[in-house]
What does this fold into?
Amino acid sequence: QSALTQEASVSGTVGQEVTLSCTGNSNNIGSYAVAWYQQISHGAPKTVMFGNSLSSGIPDRFSGSKSGTTASLTISGLQPEDEADYYCSTWDYSLSAPVFGGGTKLTVL
Amino acid sequence: QVQLQESGPGLVKPSQTLSLTCAVSGGSISSDDYYWSWIRQHPGKGLEWIGYIYYSGSPYYKSSLQSRLTISVDTSKSQFSLRLYSVTAADTAVYYCARARRVGDMLYFDYWGQGTLVTVSS
It folds into this structure.
């Protein structure tokens, strides 16, 4: 069981805006910034963003936000190449360790 | 551009030791702001942090693996290693090495290796 909770699956059509959520508690998301990772076809994870900062090479249709103990990754203008598994991650104060969500499988219809 | 590359046996027998090495290039392993990490992914499952080490040699392990795990670093070779003892089929996974960047009092992973599948089977 993951420390952070994500939707198992989300789908959207090309051009649509989709939002993926990541829910934790006051020991993790409530206290720290959140990172998002993209994993395409079970390949190596790629860092999408940390906090509000996009990683190099990530298109600006990706954006992140956080409210309380829930973080969100929004993809505007969904593209076929965005189909992937997305994982959220942050630090957990009580564990003194990084934690991950279970991942969301994003399908582009 | 930092690159990380895992290497090691793809098949390990039950009760034996899983040993992997991660070679770091394109950046200094001795940089103050980075920790060198291992993360694994069981087949069809999510990501699981295993542990990390600072270049000075201070390791931090996931509590549930602490009794079976050793992570070490060799700055002269720009590499770090993982040894997981007394493995079982439950340790079958893709093992990733990654660089963790320190931001304030937290870490996040900014560069990842390609991953290597390790199967525990007789």
Remarks:
- Chain B touches chain A at residues 46-49, 60, 62-63, 94, 96, 98, 100-101, 103, 105-115 (CB under 8 Å).
- The CA atoms of residues 19 and 83 of chain B lie 5 Å apart.
